Amino acid sequence: MAKPETTVGQVVLARVEEQAAVLAGLDEAVRADEPDAVHRMRVACRRLRSALRTFRRLFAPGATDELVAELRWLGGALGGARDREVLAERLAAQARELPAGCGPERVAAALERWGETEYRRVWPEVVAALDSPRRRDLGDALAALLADPPLRRRADRPAVAELSRIAAREQRRTADRVRTALAAGPGERDGALHAARKAAKRARYAGETAAPAAGRRAERYTERMKAVQEVLGEHQDAVVAAAALAAQASAGGEPFGYGVLYGRQLAAEQAARERLPGVWKRAGKPKLARFG
């Protein structure tokens, strides 16, 4: 007797179950402020939200809307602390590479103090979110979804063909965003590139979901989309860092050293924009999304 073919619903539920377990297992690590715990929990929120959005048509209409909103809330609550931590680390590392005349250690120390102050300022928001009834309700809602999945008939379709179709859709969506960003003027460019980054991330997560069923072809798709996400992430990081440096310089920090670092952020933005077409050329090939 032939083995029943894996369905797309089974693959997606396996992804949700996996990431729900990651999310549930990190509460204490985050409360203890263990290294990288906030980042891992935030990524689990993103992966869960992306799975429920990307594959929402497998579920009964509206069945996942509240979960998506609550995962966005939790990810946002975690994001303030994580973003400040990463930004300070990035800038302090760059500061130590400054010429001696800029006072590299002094500038780095000032940035580290700023980062620590900002991190501690928003940390209570993280703990409050984890201790809230809203967080407990989110865990219960994920468990309920997995215990009795509200799947539609289309969730019974063979996994690889359906995952390939959805990956192609996400690839086209990313292509539209990349084209828009590359054609945007200076006033709209940063926002358009950020939107393209979010689309590439969603496509990458679709590839990750597909990989257990579709194998190496889905892994290759994931790798290419991750490369696009990373170059766009470099651009976004530089945009955010430049804004933070400008604000700190005007607040009386280390204006000369911050000014040099600001110039480096502008150069990093330009370098990322120049790399994007080549990176996208490898990720945008239609055959990349053909998993079958």
Question: What is the element layout, followed by pairings?
Answer:
Blueprint: H1 8-24, H2 27-31, H3 37-54, H4 65-95, H5 104-130, H6 133-147, H7 159-183, H8 186-214, H9 216-250, H10 255-283
Helix pairs in contact: 1-3, 1-6, 1-7, 3-4, 3-8, 4-5, 4-6, 7-8, 7-10, 8-9, 9-10
Q: What brief labels describe this structure?
A:
mainly alpha; 10 helices; 292 residues; 79% helix
Gyration radius, in Å: 21 Å
What is the share of helical residues? Answer: over 70%
Biggest sheet, in brief? none
Whole-Å distance between the termini?
Answer: 23 Å
Question: Could you give a quick summary of the protein structure above?
Answer:
79% of the residues lie in helices and 0% in strands. It is an all-alpha fold and 292 residues long.
Please describe what this structure looks like.
With 292 residues, this protein is mainly alpha-helical. The protein is built from ten helices and no strands. Helix 1 packs across helix 7, helix 3 packs across helix 8 and helix 8 packs antiparallel against helix 9. The longest helix has 35 residues. The radius of gyration is 21 Å and the shape is globular.
